[in-house]
Amino acid sequence: MEYFIQLFMSGTVKGSIYALIALGYAMVYGIIQLINFAHGEIYMIGAFTALIIGATMASAGVPTGLVLVVALISAMVWAAAYGVTLEKIAYKPLRNSPRLSALISAIGMSIFLQNYVLLAQTSNFVPYPNWVPQFAFLEDIKGILNSNQFFILLTTAVVMVLFTLMIRYTKMGKAMRATAQDKAMAQLVGINVNQVISVTFVLGSVTAALGGVLICSYMGQINYYIGFIAGIKAFVAAVLGGIGSIPGAVLGSFVLGWTESLGAGYLSSDYEDAFAFVILIIILLVRPSGLLGKKEIKKV
Amino acid sequence: MHNIDWKKELKQSTLAALWFIFLTFPLMVMKVAIIQGQATITWRWYNVPVVAVTFFILSFVWRYMLERRNFTQKKESKDILGKLLAQPKYSRPAIIALAVFLLAFPFAFSMYQTNVMISVLIYIILGLGLNIVVGYGGLLHLGYAAFYAMGAYSYGLFFTYMGPKFIEWGINTGLMFWIAIPAAAILSLVFGFIVCLPVIRLRGDYLAIVTLAFGEITRMFLQNEGQITLGPSGVSQIPRPWLLGMKITPVFAAKYVYFIALVLVIISIKVVKNLEDSKIGRAWEAMRDDDIAAQSMGIDLTRAKLASFAVGALWAGFAGVLLAAKTTFINPESFTLWESIIILCVVVLGGMGSIPGVIVGSVLMIMLPEYFRSFAEYRMLIFGLALVLMMIFRQGGIIPRKRKQHTFEVEGEGAVK
Amino acid sequence: MKPILDVKDMSMVFGGLRAVDKVNIHIDKGEIVALIGPNGAGKTTFFNCITGVYTPTEGEILISRSDNSGDQKKINGLKPNVINNMGLARTFQNIRLFSSMTVLENVMIGRHHALKSSILGSIFRVKSTREEEERLIHESYGILKKIGLEKFVNEQAQNLPYGAQRRLEIARAMATDPFLLLLDEPAAGMNPQETRELVDTINFIRDEENITILLIEHDMSLVMTLSERIYVVDYGQLIAEGAPEEIKANPDVIKAYLGE
Questions:
Q1: Is the N or C terminus of chain A more exposed, i.e. has fewer CB atoms within 10 Å?
Q2: Candidate CATH numbers 3.40.50.2000, 3.40.50.80, 3.40.50.1000, 3.40.50.300; the one for domain C5-99+178-258
């Protein structure tokens, strides 16, 4: 039983990270129907920026708590800046083009950003310092839930709540939902669609960067390639839940996290990554539009 | 074009330069090395002026190019080369020159060059195959490398399991290549068909992600089921193709495989061309342009999709066997998602649905990185950027698809093509 | 004599919305019939049900190529391509051509069902395939000539003027050898000159090609000159049926169009 709880918790933690990244996929897809292939790179850049700024501060003797806060903020700021720039350069000129063109452009950007970080920093794994405070009250159950994991769960929960409130109650949230439904109509009723798209990229990048810093602190290392795998997984999660649906992306992420942990724990750890794909195929066979995706009515 | 407002332009470029200084600051200026928990930070201030000047200039170029694109989009591009080559006066010598070049290539150039050229030929076959699914059928396929692996492993494992038997029976193992070629093609075709069956009702991006998933599962299977597939270390010492029982040296093998690949490329081009102007080829393109209309015009979408997946997979089977024969060594690492993406890029960069496009796309995708090894560090960076720029400024690809033209006599009924 | 299209109590429900509500319509061989009604009355949904894009929630759709009662077939729930092969062809309200293909190729797609060649035959381009292709090109060109589009033969469909695109939809549908042609707003967006030509074309298709026609249209003058019988729907329900003069005078129809 304890083994199960342990696996379940590690699955939940994984799912939280996937959820933080998958939000960006789901939002961008919802609004411009694009698989933002470079989203994983934004996550990686966010984590790298936090490492650079954080390590610089730490070596200057700044207290750890402050380092964590500033590192997180700078990860979010720069990730958002990269996200918005990415959209302006690689996607905006292709807004009226076939979907495949924008997708290839996204793939191109993904390759570009990976190699940019490789050249500007290093191709090796860099140890990632752990700035997350160690909570004393978790000492007894460390085997099941350690401080890093707790911090990840807490952050994800806070982000999800804020996010839901924002989408539901703010003016921008309403504008985003309107744009997702019908871009042309949203424009006609006076919504600044360009602005909505930029905000979408900012939000997606910010949450991804948070996820990046947290998971790197937990795993203890980073390199230029981490975004690619995480990005693919999070994308699978978003599709699993029903692409473009935000609650779907969150649900899909947890389903994916649990499947991977339990599968690796009970079946075979060699196939940990394959479980994600197997569950994806099974769910799409039963529900072709994902767990929470709406059934498409053909418009003729 | 209209007058340039220099003041505005300068302002925009300055802003762009400032923005990029900010954007690239942590990654370009600061560099961290962490050794035993101790962080050392290197400050590279010289990158600030480099970024500033680069983006100040690029910002001008970018706006100019975008403007020009919007300005010329409506007009047909002047295709001078295409028009010249359409006349037999110029096309005949061109074809002869090309034929001579291709025939002489392995003798005129080194073994290394020949091997690069074989890679190009393999990618042409892969590109033509994927082009059937993506270019004609409009189905985004992100797991094509799995079929490529299917081809390579059918030859590799055939050798692993039957090779000793062949030796025991006193048969040259090189003959296995000639059995593997048709066998791999048929296996890939069947495999393509089976994979497609369950995913047939998925649409658009769902199909894309499922093909991706399928490709990754295949690779993990190859990696983890060492009992069957020899695992991550792969299959080595695969025999080179048989030729009249001769002992084949590596240098000769390169030339020989080159010619086999060349023949297969010519066959592929011919077959794909035939398919393009056929019932099924038109059905694919109709399905891509508008699936609901296609169905309403009597096209069975299920059959068309199955056919495109299966026929597309067949070429990957051929290419896989060629790869195994060329390198005599295969392992799962050759068939990652990246491989699928590279093949997709061959098709899209060259020009979707365009056979000459796929050829040029393969040449560029394989040759450029090979011959720009001096820029080795930067080649992937440039490659990524090139993909983005191509999509923005030349969407139809390098050689866009041309439609077949028919001329009809005004009075009579005779169709003259 | 049996009708060639007989729709009995057909309904189409989306969630809570009854887009088509217990509609009964029948069409006899050789007629030109119009289906009219205000925007959103359920006309296109009705077409989509008959052509297999949607499966109707209730009711029956029966067709027969001849007016012989023996060969009536129920087509509910069949796929669009199967229904098309049985002899029902349609055009689309929001033009759905194969936009990157040429005008000739669009018509050639329409003849898809008539081709016998197999994939293997196509791969090796055997003699029978070559001959079939040759014939196909001629036949398709012939259809374009009948509809008056031969001058655009090699143009890409997306580059055609709007009116020509609408006519190409008709040509493409005719190429499938239908006995009943369903036209969804064929005159939408056409100028008066083009509309007059369209009337001639539709009459020609009925008289010379012996194809029965059911059309949805908002252009009332076109409906009144062309059709022999008119059905009027509103809120998914059939509210009137009759000859053009009767429909013009029907108070329910006037109310539906003008509101109260």
A1: N
A2: 3.40.50.300
Average pLDDT for residues C90-95, to the nearest whole number? 92
pLDDT at A42 over 50: yes
Considering the domain boundaries, does residue B358 fall inside one? yes
Q: What residues pair up with B415 in beta bridges, in sequence order?
A: B408
Helix (H, G, I), strand (E, B) or coil at C231: strand
Phi then psi for residue C184, to 5 deg, are -100, 105
Q: Does the beta-carbon distance from C102 to B404 stay under 8 Å?
A: yes
Inter-axis angle of helices A272-286 and A226-241, to 10 degrees?
20
Surface of C (30-49) touching A: CB under 8 A? 44, 48
Q: What is the dihedral of CA A168, A169, A172, A178, to 10 degrees?
A: 50
CA distance C165 to C157: 7
- Kind plus residue range of the DSSP H or E element containing C81: helix C80-85
Shortest Cα distance, chain C CAs vs residue B285, angstroms: 8
Asked if residue B110 and residue B67 are part of one domain, the reply reads no
pLDDT tens digit sequence for A68-110:
999 999 999 999 999 999 999 999 999 888 877 888 899 899 9
| Domain housing B365 | 101-393
Q: Which residues of C touch B290 (CB under 8 A)?
A: 96-99
Cα R_g (chain A), whole angstroms: 19
Per-residue pLDDT tens over the stretch B79-98: 666 666 677 777 788 888 88
Number of cross-chain residue pairs from A and B with Cβ atoms under 8 Å apart: 176
Q: Which residues pair with B330 in a beta bridge?
A: B235
According to DSSP, residue A258 is labeled H
| Residue located via tokens 């924002």 | A166
Contacts 24+ apart (CB under 8 A), C185-189: C185/C93, C185/C216, C185/C217, C185/C218, C186/C91, C186/C215, C186/C217, C187/C217, C187/C219, C187/C222, C188/C93, C188/C218, C188/C219, C189/C162, C189/C163
Q: Which residues contact B189 (CB under 8 A, 6 or more apart)?
A: B310, B311, B313, B314, B317
Residue of A295, A299, A300 best to disrupt the C interface, most CBs of C under 10 A: A300
**Roughly how many angstroms between the first and final C-alpha of chain C, as a whole number?**
40
Which chains have 3 or more CB–CB distances shorter than 8 Å to chain C? A, B
Cross-chain Cβ contact C109/B294 below 8 Å: yes
Coil, strand or helix at C76: coil
In a domain, B401, yes or no: no
> Which of C96, C100, C105 is opposite residue B293, by nearest beta carbon?
C96
Provide the 10 A C-beta neighbour count for residue B338. 13
Instruction: Evaluate whether residue B300 is within a structural domain.
Output: yes
Euclidean distance between the first and the last CA atom of chain B, given in angstroms as a whole number? 41
Same domain, B55 and B135: no
CA A169 to chain B, closest CA, distance in angstroms equals: 30
Residue listed under structure tokens 């099974």: A282
pLDDT tens digits along B214-234: 888 888 888 887 777 787 878
Q: Which of C23, C45, C48, C42 has the alpha carbon at shortest distance from C238?
A: C23
ipTM value of the model? 0.90
Question: Cα(B275)–Cα(B284) distance, rounded to whole angstroms?
Answer: 10
Cα(B338)–Cα(B212) distance, integer angstroms: 11
Q: Report the first-to-last Cα separation within chain A, whole angstroms.
A: 54
Domain boundary among B72, B93, B111: B72
- Please give the angle made by the CA atoms of A209, A215 and A220, to the nearest 5 degrees: 125
CA pair distance A152, C171, nearest whole angstrom: 62
* Same domain assignment for residues B245 and B148: yes
Q: Find the helix or strand (DSSP H, E) in which B396 lies.
A: none
